[in-house]
Design brief:
alpha/beta; 8-stranded mixed beta sheet; 6-stranded parallel beta sheet; elongated
Length: about 300
């Protein structure tokens, strides 16, 4: 299996936090978004993980030099982004037709059982049941759970199973052919080459797709939702019980990074503090603090404190 992570986006909705850092490297609960995604999939033992970069590509390249434990990695630059379909097509020269492919959007945090992919015979799209399907692309399934068609933002109800950005492809050759057809014939949706259009072509050609559930879909698209995700994921990375500092109160869950200096402060709940940060005479609740930041004489609640 190979894993492809498209991470070329510029994260405009998260400015100013993404002015110097790509969205996938924003800190959440003591790690970057990309750390959470990749580490949760390493048990699948991919032969290679391919990152489709674009915005701040050089920052991701430098980041990957510090992730030797991830095994074989490759970056491919999407110089003039023209949609997710184009992004995936850039990885396909490095994927064999008989090697399964797992595509995970590089800003999608989730809780799902990826172990079902080991030995899976069908193509699988992970979905999450939503209250308002009009905002999403959805999968329409038959009674056996096989996908009959994909519908983008349906105005009439056809399904509440939103496609969350995790795609397992067994029929790699058919994916290559479908994407090639779209691009050679300049078939675009909303002026972009869409992966969903290629998947729909595969379904019509007889490729078998089914859904698998995501138990939790964690949004990192806006500052407020990133903070909500931070609070949820901290339960997995809480080290507050092992941290002590004179004159300080730490309320779980929290993650305190390496070489952090805490002086006369109250930290938590739901606070993640990056490495080498300093917090003095302050109260922090529902806060993400980046590496190296110094906070003095502040009462902060529900904010991201960046460089």
């Amino acid at each position: 299996m190979k894993i492809v992570l498209p991470v070329a986006g510029n994260g405009l909705r998260l400015r100013p936090y993404t002015e110097n850092v790509p969205k996938c490297l924003l800190p959440v609960a003591g790690k970057t978004i990309l750390d959470w995604i990749v580490e949760d999939s390493l048990f699948l033992k991919p032969s290679e993980t391919i990152f489709i970069t674009g915005y701040k590509a050089e920052v991701i390249d430098e980041f990957l030099t510090r992730r030797q434990a991830w095994g074989a990695t490759r970056t491919v630059v999407q110089g003039n982004p023209q949609g997710l379909g184009e992004a995936i097509s850039l990885s396909l020269p490095f994927v064999n037709d008989d090697e399964p492919l797992l595509i995970i959007l590089g800003d999608t945090m989730f809780e799902a059982d990826l172990s079902i992919l080991q030995g899976a015979k069908d193509n699988i799209l992970y979905t999450f049941k939503v209250a308002d399907p009009k905002r999403f692309g959805v999968a329409v399934t038959d009674p056996a759970g096989r996908i009959e068609r994909l519908v983008e933002k349906p105005q009439e109800f056809v399904s509440d199973e939103a496609i969350v950005g995790i795609y397992y492809i067994r029929d790699v050759k058919a994916l290559k052919e479908s994407l090639r057809f779209l691009m050679e014939n300049d078939i675009r949706t909303k002026n972009e080459f869409q992966l969903t259009d290629a998947l729909e072509m595969m379904i019509k050609k007889g490729c078998r797709f089914r859904t698998a559930p995501v138990s939790k879909w964690l949004d990192c698209g806006l500052a407020e939702t990133l903070l909500e995700t931070n609070a949820h994921v901290l339960e997995r990375n809480d080290n507050s019980s092992s941290v002590s500092a004179e004159g300080c109160k730490i309320i779980a869950p929290c993650h305190i990074g390496n070489n952090v200096k805490l002086v006369n402060c109250t930290i938590g709940p739901n606070v993640a503090i990056g490495d080498n940060a300093v917090v003095e005479n302050s109260t922090l609740k529902d806060v993400v603090v980046w590496d190296g930041v110094k906070i003095c004489d502040k009462n902060l609640d529900g904010v991201i404190v960046h460089q």
